Every structure is written in structure tokens, then in C-alpha cells.
Input
Amino acid sequence: MTAAEATLAPLLQVRDVTVRYGAITAVHGLSLHVDAGEIVAIVGPNGAGKTSLLSSIAGLVRPQAGAILLRDVTLETVGLENVVRHGIALVPEGRNIFASLTVLENLQLGATIRRDAAVRSDLQAFFESFPILGERRNQPAGLLSGGEQQMLAIARALMSRPTLLMLDEPSLGLAPKIVEQVYAELERIRDGGVTILVVEQNAARAFAVADRAYVMRHGRLALAGTPDELRAHADFDAAYFGVSMAEAAPPEAAGRP
Amino acid sequence: MDRLVQTLVDAVSVGGLYALTALGIGLIFGVMRLINFAHGELIMIAGYAVLLMFDMPVGLVVIGALAASVLLALAIERAAFRPIRTADPPTLLISSFAVSFFLQKTMILFVGSRPKGVDFLPDLARQVEIAGIRLQLLQIVTIVVSAILLVGLSWFLRTTRLGLEMRAAAENFAMAQVLGVRANRVIATAFAISAVLAAVVACLFVAQTGLVQPRMGLQLVVIAFVGTVIGGLGSLPGAALGGFLVGATTILLQTLLPPDLRVFREAFVFVAVALVLLLRPQGIIPARGLKERI
Output
């Protein structure tokens, strides 16, 4: 591959990936790609295999078949601990912040792979953009609210200075106002040069920021395209829920605090 | 008054030994959910290192005991536990029994099962007078050394990078690895620290009893394990406190019970343990965040 081709090739390629847990197949020979600078959304109902797909890219589960390439690096063989060293950071479902560690310690762990002097200034910059977390830097992260924990999980992932940031259900369990803040933050992150792959059950929310989206159902791709194409697509509602978008609107829209 | 202070000092020094042993077990459980019954053999091998070297300068003997214990711990981790690292906790537990038996029986094969006497640190057996009360020097040394190790370990875990990685791995290993934490490094460090604690316990224990034998670690580990459970499995402060309480209670019962009931002191300890578990099944200081896993 020449240098010119390398820059034209997608940042991430998932080719015919199959993920099985015992007798259950969560992902069936799925292929997709993410280009540098994009926000790509993977939407679909609960149990569609979105999290399994993300876990296989992150190295948490090993696909039984297929290939996952970051540029020309074959990811499924590098090992869980090294995926982040190749520039992929994950904000997992449920955030998985370290509840017993302080806010600052969570962020320091995000910088595990870095030894450069800029870690300190990155921390400082984060505390300046999120003064609430800055004030509570020495408190256990488990005491933060759900929205604060989500921001912390995103910041922790960014501390590794990734080229690709992956998020699993960032809106889950958050109030609508907080979800807006999280997604506004994602756009800022993309504008800062980080490519984003986001898995989301809340399709409407993800479509508002995504350049492209994939709809997953039963472990397979049902549809792919730009959000506008997908919204206009006659099969979208059927592919997504088998119900209309109005009914499929997320529970947050119903006005929880 | 003298008698009371002497008993308390005795209880605190024995409690300290059990606290160190419980910490060694708790550290390994924290990072890999392994209840390592072979911890007793780390104590035993250090005991035999002391036996082998006891007439050399004390510093050398301690270094020899530390080296023997750490090398054995790293070898056990590499050969026995690394290949089954992701196995479920019962499998890990049974494997640790296998390792423990294997090491004990191998030792019996080479040195026999009879206890061997060793006169380690005889100077510490003498009494000293502090504020008019006569106390055994060894007990005071035991208390001071235990306290230094507890503070030192806590400092290591709180302030060093590796300590932070170990605490993160103890709470959620997969997430720590997603962030780039090296599992091999964290687990090997936990085994090495656990071995250092075992070697120190061995030196103090041998100095106190004057005996070395292949099964010497077993009783310490069983009692200390009970301590980690009542302290709160997975919590290091819990392990230290639980180990201390069980050890200290044993000594206090030994002194306070009427003579004809003393042979049953373990029964009293275990009744107390059962009560703690009934009232606080999660332990005195429960571990935080254990449920949150990827």
C-alpha cells in the first residue's frame, strides 16, 4: 500500500466479522467502515449485536471470523491491552468509571499509555472545561452524578489521545438536557480531529450529529447511509423496531428529570 | 496492670502478623479473584531460607528469605496461575490447593516432615522495660515492623503509578486493560508484594516459635483467610483489620478464658466470626465497586 492509498483507505474496516457466545451468534458476518474525521453511528434495537461489535473492535471479545483493520494494523490479534496503543479508545456501556478511585485518578489511568509531559496540561484543560469535575478532582468518582460520570468516562478515553473514539450508548440513563451536552461535546471532539464511532439505541439523537449511520438488527446490517437517506428510507422504521419513529422515541423524550 | 498491658502487646503483635498475612491473601484476591492458599508455602519457603542462613548477618538472612519467597511467588504465578487466569474463582481456588499441596509434599520429600529448631534473632527474646512494664523485645519489633509494612503498602498503592494500576485492576480488570494497563505486570507485582509480606511474617514467626516445618504456613493462612472474609473480601483495609482482629482475639481469649476452656479458644473465635458474618455478610469494610464489570 502506498502512502497515498493509505490516507485514502478508511481509518477502520470491519470485514465479515462474526461474534459468537457459545451457541448464540451476536454478530453475523458484518462489514462496515469508518473514514477519518467522521462521526459514524450504529443504531438498532436492544439485542441487535451493537455492543458485541464494539467489544470485538476494542479487543474485549475475539471474533470467530472476519477481520478488523485500523489502517493496516490487524486489530483482532494485537490483544486487549494494545488496542489503545494503536489509537482506539472506548467509552463502554454503563461508563465503567472506577467508582472507588478519585476523578483525577480515573483520568490518570486514561493516560496509562502516555509518558509525555503534556499529560499534566491535558488534565488542566479538562478541569477548566468542566469546573464541576475540577472542584471534585480528589473525590471518589462514584459520588458523581450520571452525567458527570459520562463526561468523566469520555475525558478518560480522550486522555490516551486516540485517533478513534468509540462510545457505547452514551445517552443511556441520562436526562435529555445532559444528553444534549454529551452530544455537543462529541461534535467538539470530532472538530478537534478525533474520529468517532458511536453505538446508540436513541437513533434520533445519534442521527442529529452523525455523518453516516448503520442500522443493525439481529446481528446483521439492515440499512446503511446518511441520516437523511435513512430517515427517508421506507424500510427504516421496519428495520429499526417494526414500529414508527414516534413510538420508538426514547424514554428521555417523555420528560424525565 | 502490667499483666493487662503485656496481654495487649501480645495480642497486637500476633494481630499484626495475621494482618500482614491477610493482606497478602487480600492483595491477590483483589487483582485476580484468586484465594491463594499457596500463600502459606511462601511463608514456609522463607522459613527454610532462614533455617539455611540463620548464622549469617541478620540483614543477609532477611534478604535471603525475601528472595526465596518472591522467586517462588513469581514462579507459581507464571507456571500455575497465568495459564488459567481467566478461569472462574472456584477453579482458581482448587488450583491454589493443588499448588499448596505440591509444594508441601515436595518439601517433605526433601527435608522430612519433622519440625526443625532454629535460633533466629535470639537477642529479641529478652525483656525490656518500658514505662515500668516489662515487655518482650520481639513483640515490640513485630508491632513496629507490621505497622511500617502496612503504612508502606498503603503509600505504594496510593501514590505510585503501579499502585494506581493495581487499584484500578482490582475494581475492574477488563476496563483497566482497555485503558492499556498491562495485566502481567500488575499481577506479577501483586504476587511479589504478597511474597514480601509472607517473608516478613516468616522471619517474625520463626523468631517467635524457633521452629520451621513444611506445614508452618497452613495455620497462619487459614486463620488469616478467615480474617480477610470478615474484613470484607476484596477490600485491603478490611483484610488488614479482619486479620488483626482474628489474631488479637485469639490471644485475648487465650488469656481471659478460664483455663479449662482455653483449649476451645478457636471455637470461640469462630463463633465470633459467624456472628460477624450474620450481621455483616459483606464484611466489616466491604469492597467498593466489585459489581461493576464490563
